[in-house]
C-alpha cells in the first residue's frame, strides 16, 4: 500500500477533486436511481449503487495507470486514435443503437455492452489537436500550413458527431477553438470558422423549420423555441421538475436521500443529476461541486504554465477545458440557463463509457503534472508558447 502511494504522483489537489466528485456521484446516483431500481429490479435499490461504485473504482484504476504513462506517448497514440474515430463515428450513424431518434451508441457483441463513440472521438481529437498545435508553432500564422491541418480534423469529427448529438459537437468545437486561441492561432482565422459554423447551424434550423422535420434537427428547433418562449406552458417537463427540485432544496437542502423530484424528473441520474444535488444538498452543496470543477481548471492552468513542452501544456489545458465546459453546460441546463441537452456531469452522472473516458482524460492531465513535478524548474525554457509570450 505504501509503495502504491509512493508511486502515485501528479497534482494532489486534482486527486482530491477526483475522490470528492466520486463520493458525490455515489450519493447522488444512489438517491436518484431508487425508483428506477425498484421498478426494474423489484426492490433491489442497491443495484445501481454497486454498479456505479464498480465503474468509479475502474475509473480510479484507469487514472492511476494513465498517469504513470509518459505523456509524450499520447502524442503517438493521437494519430491512431483520430484515424480510428472516423470509421467508428460513421458506423455509429449507420448501425448504432437508437435512443430518441439518435444513433450515439455501439453495442459490443457477446458482452452486450454499449458505449458512446463520441467519447473516444473527443479524447482522440484533443490529443491530435494538441499534437498539431505543438508541431505547427513556427507556421501557426500561415493559413494553409498552420491553420488548415488543425481545423480540418476538428470539422470532420464535429460533423460526424452533430447528426446524433449536436450539443456534444458544439461543445467539442468550442473547446477546440479555445485551445487554438491559446495556441496562438490568429483570431481572424478562428472568427471566420465560428462564423461559418453559426451560418451552417442557422441554415439547418431554417430548413428544419420550413420542412417540419421531426427528426433530430426538429428536436433541436423545438428545444430552442421552448427555451426562448415567454409562455410557461412551453417549458419542457424536465425543466419544470428541475425547477421544483431546486426550489425545494433551498440553501441547505433536504438532506441525502430525501429527494422527491427523482420520482418525477426524467433521467435524474444523468442529464439532471445536478438538480438532485441542489435539492438534497442545497445551494451550498451545489456550490462545492461547482467549485471543484473550477479548481480543476485552475490547477490545469498552473500545469499549462509550468510544463516546459508545448504538447503537454496544450494537452493538459485542452482536456480540462472540455471537462469543465461540459460541467458548466450541464449545470446551466439544470437551472434553465440553456436549452435542454443530453450532456452529463463529468465523473458524477451515472454511466459507463462516460466515466471511463473522463477518467482517462484526468489520468492524462495527471501524467503531464507528474512530468512537471519530476523535471522541476530545470527545463523552464521557451518551448512552452505561454512562457515564450
TrEMBL record:
One GO CC term on file: plasma membrane
Localisation: Membrane
Major enzyme class: transferase
GO BP annotation list: cell division; peptidoglycan biosynthetic process; regulation of cell shape
Keyword Transferase annotated: yes
UniProt keyword terms in alphabetical order: Cell cycle, Cell division, Cell shape, Glycosyltransferase, Membrane, Peptidoglycan synthesis, Transferase, Transmembrane, Transmembrane helix
Topology of the protein relative to the lipid bilayer: Multi-pass membrane protein
Transmembrane region(s): 13-36, 48-67, 73-96, 150-182, 189-208, 272-297, 309-333, 345-368
Major localisation: membrane
GO MF, one example: peptidoglycan glycosyltransferase activity
Record-linked InterPro entries: FtsW/RodA
EC number, UniProt record: 2.4.99.28
Reaction equation(s) it catalyzes: [GlcNAc-(1->4)-Mur2Ac(oyl-L-Ala-gamma-D-Glu-L-Lys-D-Ala-D-Ala)](n)-di-trans,octa-cis-undecaprenyl diphosphate + beta-D-GlcNAc-(1->4)-Mur2Ac(oyl-L-Ala-gamma-D-Glu-L-Lys-D-Ala-D-Ala)-di-trans,octa-cis-undecaprenyl diphosphate = [GlcNAc-(1->4)-Mur2Ac(oyl-L-Ala-gamma-D-Glu-L-Lys-D-Ala-D-Ala)](n+1)-di-trans,octa-cis-undecaprenyl diphosphate + di-trans,octa-cis-undecaprenyl diphosphate + H(+)
Family: Belongs to the SEDS family. FtsW subfamily.
Protein name, as recorded: Probable peptidoglycan glycosyltransferase FtsW
Organism: Chitinophaga lutea
Amino acid at each position: 500500500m505504501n509503495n502504491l502511494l509512493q508511486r502515485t504522483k501528479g497534482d494532489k489537489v486534482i486527486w482530491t477533486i477526483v475522490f470528492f466528485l466520486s463520493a458525490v456521484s455515489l450519493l447522488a446516483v444512489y438517491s436518484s436511481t431508487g425508483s428506477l431500481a425498484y421498478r426494474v429490479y423489484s426492490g433491489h435499490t442497491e443495484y445501481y449503487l454497486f454498479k456505479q461504485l464498480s465503474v468509479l473504482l475502474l475509473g480510479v484504476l484507469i487514472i492511476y495507470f494513465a498517469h504513470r504513462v509518459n505523456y509524450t506517448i499520447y502524442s503517438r497514440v493521437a494519430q491512431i486514435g483520430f484515424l480510428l474515430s472516423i470509421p467508428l463515428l460513421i458506423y455509429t450513424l449507420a448501425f448504432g443503437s437508437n435512443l430518441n431518434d439518435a444513433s450515439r451508441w455501439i453495442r459490443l457483441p457477446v458482452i452486450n455492452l454499449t458505449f458512446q463513440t463520441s467519447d473516444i472521438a473527443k479524447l482522440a481529437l484533443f490529443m491530435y489537436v494538441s499534437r498539431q498545435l505543438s508541431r505547427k508553432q513556427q507556421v501557426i500564422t500561415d493559413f494553409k500550413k498552420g491553420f488548415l491541418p488543425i481545423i480540418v480534423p476538428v470539422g470532420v469529427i464535429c460533423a460526424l458527431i452533430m447528426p446524433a448529438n449536436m450539443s456534444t459537437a458544439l461543445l467539442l468545437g468550442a473547446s477546440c477553438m479555445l485551445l487554438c486561441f491559446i495556441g496562438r492561432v490568429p483570431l481572424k482565422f478562428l472568427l471566420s470558422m465560428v462564423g461559418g459554423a453559426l451560418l451552417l447551424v442557422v441554415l439547418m434550423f431554417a430548413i428544419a423549420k420550413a420542412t417540419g422535420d421531426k427528426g433530430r434537427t426538429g428536436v433541436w428547433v423545438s428545444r430552442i423555441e421552448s427555451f426562448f418562449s415567454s409562455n410557461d406552458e412551453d417549458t419542457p417537463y424536465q425543466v419544470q421538475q428541475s425547477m421544483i427540485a431546486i426550489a425545494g432544496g433551498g440553501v441547505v437542502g433536504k438532506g441525502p436521500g430525501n429527494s422527491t423530484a427523482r420520482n418525477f424528473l426524467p433521467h435524474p441520474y444523468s442529464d439532471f443529476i445536478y438538480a438532485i444535488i441542489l435539492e438534497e444538498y442545497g445551494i451550498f452543496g451545489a456550490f462545492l461541486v461547482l467549485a471543484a470543477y473550477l479548481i480543476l481548471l485552475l490547477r490545469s492552468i498552473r500545469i499549462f504554465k509550468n510544463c516546459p513542452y508545448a504538447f503537454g501544456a496544450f494537452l493538459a489545458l485542452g482536456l480540462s477545458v472540455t471537462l469543465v465546459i461540459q460541467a458548466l453546460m450541464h449545470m446551466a441546463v439544470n437551472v434553465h440557463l440553456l436549452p435542454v441537452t443530453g450532456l452529463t456531469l463529468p465523473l458524477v452522472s451515472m454511466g459507463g463509457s462516460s466515466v471511463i473516458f473522463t477518467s482517462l482524460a484526468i489520468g492524462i492531465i495527471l501524467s503531464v503534472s507528474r512530468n512537471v513535478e519530476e523535471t522541476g524548474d530545470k527545463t523552464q525554457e521557451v518551448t512552452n508558447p505561454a512562457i515564450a509570450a
